[in-house]
Amino acid sequence: MMVTVVGAGISGLTTAVVLAEAGHGVEIISDLPPSSTTSAVAGASWGPYLADDPRILKWSTRSLREFAGHAGDGRTGVRMMPGIEAYDEHLPQIPSWARSVPGYRECDTVDVPAGYAGAWQYTIPLIDMPRYLDHLVARLIAAGARLTIGPRLTSFDGLDSDLIINCAGLRAADLVDDPKLIPVRGQLVVIANPGIERFFQDNVVGAMTCIFPHRDHAVLGGSSIVGETSLEWDDAEEAAIIDRCAAIDARIASATVVGRRVGLRPSRTQVRLERDERDPRVIHNYGHGGSGVTLSWGCAADVLRLAQDTAARVAGTA
How far is CA 166 from the centre of its chain? Predict the structure, then answer.
């Protein structure tokens, strides 16, 4: 079966890899290369964030297993990293999914940073996204698939494929006229790593704080501005991010800024992963909010299931 995947971000690439390695002929088409997608500027840590769907636990768990497997290969940019996640009084209880993650334990009061009601520690995947996207592209090509960069699609008309997978992210709002899909602006600061070896993140909505260390750099965040579409850099926001992160680790205050990232998360009232009722050739996989990385492998597995069901039905009518 020939499959066209629309979109070359984390969802599109992962879905294409799963389909191609299952034996389907696959082409990804996108107007942006992977290095220019929103995924390329993600943090990125594993953990459900800014996504709402009853299937999230299943998807997240599947992805956690996959990333843990990738962490043994330095080419992937994936590392299993210990650290803590803090919360304020707006989090009624520690989410049940956190308790099943390796290394979980609730932090003693003395270990909770000032200004937070509590925290827990565990070990989760941290992903260096530029390197990881390159890894997915290499895996895709090795599986015999193609990646085509061309004009931006305005519809699926003219795509000559047995199946179309819509992984267009925020651009799906126009492509399939989905008013439920809205941008959530995020900004991150990249510093030369001053020796940080544990991650930190919190559950505060809006001006959240995160510190994601990689070997030679650390990614600091962040922001979550619903409905904002500007990709212009905000210097005041950068200063606020550095100040919040320096309150967690004082070494950050004097660290050198080596990069700046800004992107628009594709947020939706519910992740859209389903077959299109009007066009049975189309399967949608978008609206992952800030959890595109976390949900990527789980969602791709469900897309494969739907694709195989479609292929079986087509074969049954042939």
Answer: 16
Strand segments, DSSP code E, in 34-178 are 78-87, 105-106, 118-127, 146-149, 163-166
Residues 6+ apart with CB under 8 A from 158: none
Q: Are 79 and 124 in contact (CB under 8 A)?
A: no
- Of 130, 131, 121, 139, the closest CA to residue 297 belongs to 139
| Calpha distance 157→186 (Å, rounded) | 33
Backbone angles phi, psi at 105, to 5 degrees: -160, 150
**Is the domain covering 2-317 a CATH 3.50.50.60 domain?**
yes
Strands 272-275, 282-286: pairing is antiparallel
SS3 content of the chain, % helix, strand, coil (to 5): 35, 30, 35
Query: In 262-278, which positions are buried (b, 16+ CB within 10 angstroms) versus exposed (e)?
Result: bbbbbbbeebbbebeee
Write the pLDDT tens digit of every residue in 175-202. 999 999 999 999 999 999 999 999 999 9
Centroid of chain to Cα 4: 21
* Residue 3 Cα distances to 48, 148, 163, 316, 318, angstroms: 28, 13, 5, 19, 18
The tokens for 159 are 């795509």
pLDDT in tens, 58-82: 999 999 999 999 998 989 999 999 9
Q: Does the bond joining 222 to the residue before it have cis omega, within 30 degrees of 0?
A: yes
pLDDT per residue as tens digits for the range 141-187: 999 999 999 999 999 998 989 999 999 999 999 999 999 999 999 99
Question: How many Å apart are CA 144 and CA 40, to the nearest integer?
Answer: 23
Contact by Cβ (8 Å): 178, 11: no
Read off φ and ψ for residue 298, nearest 5 degrees. Answer: -65, -45
